[in-house]
């Protein structure tokens, strides 16, 4: 089911952002979501050019613009530096925003550290609740490493998140996967799956098809190939028109790029 969110862009013009339900019992989320990696981390990223973290005022203005453009989903993670804290301070109180965060990975001293033990998952969820200034976390996904299928098949990992879900602390449980095998396991055990899909990498397409058949939500990460896409607008238009994709998570700290991304998505869903 899809709905349209009508609004007036901050730079002029009318925008219609389509909202799609993130599986049969999940929230309605904007077709375009805002990725929060660049809100808090500059090291160990794969973008083609260096960048500086936005100031508090710049980030506040970016989030305000995203809201005016109809975007209501922002994606973050403990491994994105202080992204969670900054999002929480600026919009944690705002019910407009659906916030997706993750567990399992920290980025310490220039390298990723993974821990999917029940104690670590519970501690991570509590830290995220504090950082995001929310007692209830809308979406929590497993931030999986290369051996993603092995982690997912450890029954304690999913069971811990499902227990937190049963207790009303987490809304939807998901997995950010790397392999097709893990993606299919996630579809069987989680509410949603987050997969990489872009013009250069179509390897996860079987996961998309399986999720669509199962009625599970799909978030797309790296839709612009970490900034390497030749035509960002065309890449976004192609993705949002594909069956089974709920929302495309595109990270940016540039207001002009955000406006352009929104326009591309708007045109695609209205054609």
Structure, described:
With 271 residues, the protein is of the alpha/beta class. It has a single domain, classed as Alpha-Beta Barrel (TIM Barrel). The protein is 37% helix and 25% strand. It has nine helices and 13 strands. It has helices at 56-68, 83-91, 118-132, 148-152, 155-166, 180-189, 205-214, 232-240, 255-270, and strands at residues 2-8, 14-21, 28-30, 32-35, 73-75, 98-103, 105-108, 111-114, 137-143, 170-176, 192-196, 217-221, 247-251. It has an eight-stranded parallel beta barrel with strand order 4-5-6-9-10-11-12-13, surrounded by six helices. A three-stranded antiparallel beta sheet has the order 1-2-3, with helices on one face. A two-stranded antiparallel sheet has the order 7-8. α2 (83-91) packs across α3. The protein is globular, with a radius of gyration of 17 Å. Mean pLDDT is 91; it is low at 5-13.
Strand line-up in the sheet with most strands: 4-5-6-9-10-11-12-13
Report the biggest beta sheet as strand number plus sense, adding barrel if it closes.
8 strands, parallel, barrel
Mean pLDDT, all residues = 91
Poorly predicted spans:
5-13
For the secondary structure, the number of strands is 13
What gap, in angstroms, lies between the N and C termini?
A: 17 Å
Query: Which shape, going by the Cα principal axes?
Result: globular
Quickly count the domains: 1
